[in-house]
Amino acid sequence: MRDTAAFIAEVFLPTVAKGPIKRRPRMEAAAERFGLDARAVARMQKLSRTYPEGPLLLRLPFRKQAVALHPSEVHLVLENSPDPFSPASSEKRGALAHFEPRNVLISTGGERSARRALQEQALDAHSPVHHLARHFLPVINEEAGHLIAGLAEEKQLDWEQFSGAWDRVVRRIVFGNNAADDVDLTAKLTRLRKDANWSSLKPMRSTTRAAFLSTVRQRMLAAEPGSLAHSLKAHDGSPKTAPADQIPQWLFAFDPAGMATFRTLALLASHGPQLQSVRLELSRDASEHHHLPYLRACVLESLRLWPTTPMILRQTIREVQWPHGMMPGNCGVLVFAPYFHRDVRALPGAELFQPELWIGQGPDHSPDLALVPFSEGPVRCPGRQLVLMLTSAFLAQLVERTDFLLNEPKRLEPTEPLPANLNPFSLSFTLHPREGR
Length: 437
Ligand code: HEM
Fold this sequence. Notes:
alpha+beta; CATH 1.10.630.10; 5-stranded mixed sheet; binds protoporphyrin IX containing FE
């Protein structure tokens, strides 16, 4: 019982308080000030020592809930999704119903298969360079260019300016140029995502949800050739695939991608040798920023150090036999990514910035590690390749043209363990144009 209480107090509550669906800036700031993720990781390490055979079944009066404690359990759960480990867990269904009730993430059976196939096709999930890259990259170049030009006088970059540019990128890539200025759509989604932080504890804002989903449908029908949504327009629109309802997840998930990009910029601003490697890669790049493996690895490192999906959730659809006991049906299973990503026992230098980790075969195939920023197995994020392509191309534009100095350099000392929390909303940079650019 004490272990359950400690887990709830030190791991679960601080993570949920930060806002699982829409981050709460004040809670992010508090988490960084009090080093809450470091405490969570330490608690998980302690639990894993106490229980060498996981997963740990918590003693909760109101629900059956297990927590993965060892990498082998993570791999088993994620590889055996969606059956018997369904991603459509009760709390996720409660949360996502606020803005995407028919999305693949909370679908089951034949609907899940059809929606997943549609997502993989539209996002070009298995290709490092998306087939629409030639349309996307000019958008990135233009928006990054405008962002830097707009900072010429002040020479200061903060989250608000960065995210404004990033949001435009997202709307243009998802729907085309005609949606570039539709800040109202983003604002409506933000409202609904804030509710979603409370899962089913918050009553549904049915009118706002209907208005939001209707705008998404209209935008999909008006989507321009060369945009992500355009490929869905041609689809038959059957309720089984629910094409328009797959789009809110894109709009939503590009938001954490922006945070990861901003944190990567902070890592590069504070890690000279890695920045040099990036610039070397850019100087030799023949792909016009379509494929930048080292810069992609830097983004993956930012996501390892500060995963934007810290809790990967599953729920058993029947009993599951483990070597050391039976897990009941309808049991939640939680993978707490920061613990696996930062466990120095499994990964030497886990608290340092090491892009090399992701070069070549990468850590995906190591059974002793569970580095899962995009999850793994059949439910793995189908946007992974697209995200890495777009974020690396955006960063390339920024660091090629400008030197960025972190305004509070002490937050990221290259020789010290990197902090377990890094609040992206409070990062800011001073810009210096690079000579000859
Ligand atoms: C930093 C950016 C992102 C990260 C770290 C990320 C990570 C994840 C994770 C951890 C999952 C859950 C998988 C699971 O439960 O096992 C997921 C699901 C998903 N992501 Fe992403 N994601 C990102 C951005 C995106 C973007 C930009 C898109 C689309 C444009 C996208 C599309 C999806 C979809 C459709 C799913 C549901 C997959 C399914 O249920 O089969 N993601 N993502």
